[in-house]
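Throughout this chapter, every protein is written as a compact record of paired, labelled lines. An example of such a record is reproduced below:
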Amino acid sequence: MSSKWLSLEEALAKALDAAYAIDDVEQVSIFEANNRILAHDLVATLDVPPWDNSAMDGYAVNVEDLSGSNELEVQGIITAGMEADTPLQKGKAFKIMTGAPIPNNANAVVMVENTSECNGNVEIDKRPIAHENIRKKANDIGCGDTLVHKGTRLRAEHLMLLSSQGKSKIDVFRKLRVGVVATGSELAAPGESRAATQIFESNRVGIASILQNENVELIDFGIVEDNEVSLRELFIEASKRVDVMVSSGGVSVGDADYVKDIIAELGSIDFWKVAVKPGKPFALGKINNTLFCGLPGNPVSSFVTAKLLVVPVIKKMQGEAKPHEPLFINATITTPLKRRAGRRDFQRATMAKNVQSEWEVTPFKSQSSGVMTSITSANCLMIVPEEVSELKEGDTVQVMPLHF
């Protein structure tokens, strides 16, 4: 186990290298597939559209019939879901609705706004060119096209596409099993009585909420006091039940911080110091096949490191091929800032557009990792690079929106 402080990039690379993608596959209804990870490439079995069809409400015509006259007899009506009984006859037009199949012999559609109909005839006010307002067969999807690639996190747009191919069942990777636990004798569970020296525990629900956005199977192991025997039993049990175990607290250097040492005893610890603020004491290890992520006990540190380090690990283990990268935006800082250089600082802040529609960011005065209101009041994290000790009003910085 290295005691060297790792950069965020080094820590993330090590964490992703240690993470393995699950390969167990299950089939689910398309109505249950949202936010799941696709297990196989899905290939089109149908052309979309399945035939040439009208892109407009109007009249299907043959442009050659308009060489001598702008008036045509209306042969019939074609609505979506039906087709013409007979081909288009010379000198005639079919009234046609959007999406309806183009009748044989027709080669253009005149939009209804460019026509006038009277006594069974239609007068064409603006002559079309050949193929105008016709959507060709397979111009969207051709049979054999790959619709969605393996490893895609399925969203509404993917599921609509797959449904249009008649698919009702989808093969996806099973849900990742993730355990969460809070450690510390000073913690009491919300809703229960607490001693005068205890505080109500808050990290589990925050971590669980962040991870539930990734659609995992969550197992809550509750609160475990700072006791070597209890913690050892907990992590042995967790290693038999979950793919990833996420704990908060007990990974620093205090006399009662047992978590890191117990994980090292039962398995291994890859690293436990990351040069970020808040969140330096983040531990990564493994017990058997269970990956262990140890977050700091301070609420803000736990929140930030869960976002920066745990979520990417979860995405890789779920089998996501191209995990969504965090969004970073350039903004100008509205107030000067001085600090001690050395760690990348993720400062809680608010971002807003000025009158020129340019982003500005204002960091909070208090950046204590124990002040949870700095997260609830923030809408972004302002990033101060490791080497920067001073920023002036108007300097450009990167910000990471929290809720995009």
